[in-house]
Amino acid sequence: MNFKNIDKKYRPIPFWSWNEKLSVEETREQVQKMNEAGIGGFFMHARGGLQTEYMGKEWFDNIEAAADEAAACGMHPWAYDENGWPSGFGGGIVNGKGLAYQQKYLRYEAGEKSTERTIANVDGYHFYFDVNPYYVDTLDGKVIKAFLDEIYEPYYEKMKGKIDGFFTDEPQISRNGIPWSFIMPQEYQKAYGDDLIPHLPELFKAVGDYKTTRVRFWKMVTELFSQNFMKQIYDWCEAHDFLFTGHLVLEETLTSQLFSNGACMPHYEYFHIPGMDWLGRHNNPSLTTHQLRSVACQTGKKQVLSETFALCGHNVGHDELKWIYEYQMVHGINLLCQHLEGYSNRGLRKRDYPPAMYIQQPWWKDYKPFNDAMS
Description:
Elements: E1 15-18, H1 24-36, E2 41-46, H2 57-73, E3 76-83, E4 102-110, E5 118-122, E6 125-136, H3 141-159, E7 165-169, E8 179-180, H4 184-192, H5 210-239, E9 243-247, H6 254-261, H7 265-268, E10 273-278, H8 287-299, E11 305-308, H9 318-329, E12 335-338, E13 341-342, H10 368-374
Parallel strand pairs: 1-2, 1-13, 2-3, 3-7, 7-9, 9-10, 10-11, 11-12
Antiparallel strand pairs: 4-6, 4-8, 5-6
Helix pairs in contact: 1-2, 3-5
């Protein structure tokens, strides 16, 4: 078979971890080496260890150099939309805009109080919100609009037509309990013609019509995340001629999805290339592949991505990597995103969710047959 004739968009597109002081010359050279190894593109991923200012002039000099070199090689360059993860905080810019932009959680305690974080006192309980200042309110459309303005718009201004699109990584509703947003009371009223505040005890305790309240609440949360994060970014990408891909978090079961995403499947509609995470050295049964391929079939999407191989360890071999990915392929996955290629493996960088799958490896010269086979 002539592997040269395979469209490079179906070749692996790994995470390329920009975790060092960047150099335009080094960036160009690394793109050439990826091309020689049979890789079809890359996600330019700001990550721990980065010594160049994120989103600064030197950053975009290297983005442009990588994109130009990719064009010369017929490769597909992509941007990763965050400095680390989960996506949405814009390297600290968006959550730095203040309380209204920061992630919040609904809490309660016995008794009545009045504090700066009080929501209401209902039925002998004080309801208030906790704040995670390090992430953002992904339910509020104005917050995600700020994320688009701070991260996506600069890429459009500088790289229009030069990159394929964006990877969003593990955007989420919650990892620490019931989410809260300042927009919730009005959104609940709009959706159900009912006041949310008197129903707050029903979210925590089996009182009143708590089953109806919980179904309504989590349906609202799921739709707010879907419309205000996923669809807003998807629509922006559509309008600016970019593709949108990535994956959510805690995708493996319906239970894990509830608090983190509401439900995964409604959000997959708003990826041009829906994707998943596959951590570790296993092929355990997972709901995720079934949900992804179902959405792809329903919406006519031709590619389904898997960010995979993270946490397999430095001693994993290509025979085992092949086993891991082929299991996913027969379940409908057809775009491999290897985790991880480090711009540098200096110091602690080599311990970043290994294996390190890049030019520092003694087997790099033998990597092309693996990439050909997976393509």
